[in-house]
Design a protein that fits this description.
Elements (H helix, E strand, L loop, with lengths): L1 E3 L2 E4 L7 E3 L4 E3 L21 E4 L3 E5 L5 E5 L10 E5 L9 E6 L6 E7 L8 E3 L25 H14 L1
Antiparallel strand pairs: 1-2, 3-4, 5-6, 6-7, 7-8, 8-9, 9-10, 10-11
């Protein structure tokens, strides 16, 4: 029997694991919960991987510099993934959006948003935009825009001429 604060919590139950008297910690082997886990408003620390029954994965890097959520098991091509980089990572404050490749056996980075900058840079990679509607002027910052539709070029030139 195990009593905590005068209440019996384990009656006739065998438990395993290692108790450390110095640190006051109990290291228990893998176990299955019979109900919800209530942490009593305490932190859950030193977690490397959380895998859900519904097919999601949440994990952090060993050095705690990034966190990722994946909409599937933690294998290539299993689902979209969002990676958030912390301040101690080489990619400070950046986040990436990654989706499975066409074959479903690998991952492809689709969006990278930089961090630790006055103006973040969003890099769309391996993405085709459809129905893009701008709410303001398009500033190409001195870069060239190639228009592949000849009729559209004519309409643009006519509009430009009428503005002059």
């Amino acid at each position: 029997m195990l009593s905590i604060n005068g209440q019996d919590v384990l009656l006739g139950v065998k438990v395993g694991g290692t108790w450390s008297v110095l640190s006051g910690t109990w290291i228990i082997p893998a176990f299955t919960l019979g109900g919800a886990l209530d942490a009593n408003s305490q932190n859950l620390t030193s977690v490397n991987l959380i895998s859900g029954v519904a097919g999601f994965t949440m994990y952090s890097t060993v050095d705690d510099t990034s966190l990722a959520w994946r909409g599937g098991t933690n294998t290539l091509g299993s689902g979209a993934r969002l990676v958030i980089f912390g301040k101690d990572h080489a990619q400070t404050g950046r986040f990436d959006l990654i989706t499975p490749n066409a074959a479903g056996d690998g991952d492809v980075t689709r969006l990278i948003v930089s961090g630790k900058a006055a103006i973040a840079v969003a890099s769309w990679v391996n993405v085709a935009h459809t129905g893009l509607k701008l709410s303001g002027l398009l500033d190409v910052a001195g870069q060239f825009v190639t228009i592949l539709e000849p009729l559209l070029v004519l309409v643009l030139l006519m509009n430009l001429e009428s503005m002059l």
